[in-house]
Fold this protein.
Amino acid sequence: MKGRALITGLTGQDGSYLAELLLGRGYEVFGVVRRSSSVNCERVAHLNDQITFIQADLLDQTSLISALRRARPHEVYNLAAQSFVPTSWEQPVLTGEFTALGVTRMLEAIRAVDRGIRFYQASSSEMFGKPSEFPQRETTPFHPRSPYGVAKVYGHYVTVNYRESYDLFACSGILFNHESPRRGIEFVSRKITQGVAKIKLGLSKELVLGNVDAQRDWGFAEEYVEAMWRMLQQDEPDDYVVGTGVAHSVADLVRIAFSAANLDWQDFVKTDESFLRPAEVDHLLADSSKANTKLGWKPKISFSELIAMMVDYDIYRLGKGLPLYSSVALAGS
Ligand code: NAP
Ligand code: G4F
């Protein structure tokens, strides 16, 4: 029988890669999109005729129940969230509504429609925030540093709680930062690679950043959606940390990105206090031993390869005058 999967956050970076993976494995794919006055499906435009789009919103319980009744999925991947950390200080209540309570709404919808549905929750390494141990694993205590991180901790625990309370097959994937040519332009990796491309093409003269000492464990998004899928194919539901086990600073990212375009970063990069955060996450590093052993998941692409891929994509796209998530360019990204 053909598997059916419903993805919330289909229009985001991870949603687009996950849709490709599931279609490639023979699934019928349904994607939740929220209504907007302009079309916002560029990242999945190349999959338009293979996906069924369902209008729903994490803020609207009834719409989630209707989406499940219509799609009758075997698997639900809850990727939708207000996912940009700085915005969570500007809109903390809305972030809590989407990113925290939205998870409960989806779990309640599953309880109401079909308790057999397997559920994936997109949890985050931001939950570790100011970690008490290095590297971070599933048992590392949480110390979130933003309203976003706090909301994700709620989403994680309600997922665990519904597994324990109602015996749902509910998994929480604690994913460390993952990037790609489909990354939103507000996140630091893409801000840098697009900034480098603009400078290379003479469209810009400088790149202004915040805290370049912050360190993250950055991997390639396409590889991370494979881990999500593998979690839902196990005999038992569980929680997994997913990352590369290697950390780099924002300054490292800058150096590698400029060098990939044969430019010297020192000629172009400035810092500005306006990009500093009220509370920073200084350093994150994943211990993915459990995912390695139980899921057989391991990252393949190195940090330098990832950043070079993103720089190349942005130079190619901007050079051709293609839109940010051009379906032509994305088909090969
Ligand atoms: P993203 O590119 O920002 O995509 C977020 C998605 O959520 C978009 O499709 C967005 O739809 C949708 N969304 C937001 N609010 C919604 C609502 N109220 N109802 C329905 N849909 C809504 O994020 P991503 O990088 O793909 O990340 C996917 C998930 O993983 C997020 O939950 C994120 O917090 C989490 N995560 C990401 C990383 C990472 O490094 N990328 C690491 C750990 C965890 P619109 O297109 O309409 O805005
Ligand atoms: O790229 P970022 O905005 O990602 P951040 O805050 O780590 O969050 C991302 O990863 C999380 C997983 O850990 C996800 F859950 C979350 O949804 C999101 O995908 O910032 C990375 C670092 C920060 O320390 C920030 O202070 O880069 C630093 N940074 C320095 N200058 C900057 C800038 N970040 C941004 N966005 N813009 C800057 O100019």
Remarks:
- Residues 4-178+219-242 form a domain with the Rossmann fold fold (CATH 3.40.50.720).
- The longest helix spans residues 92-113.
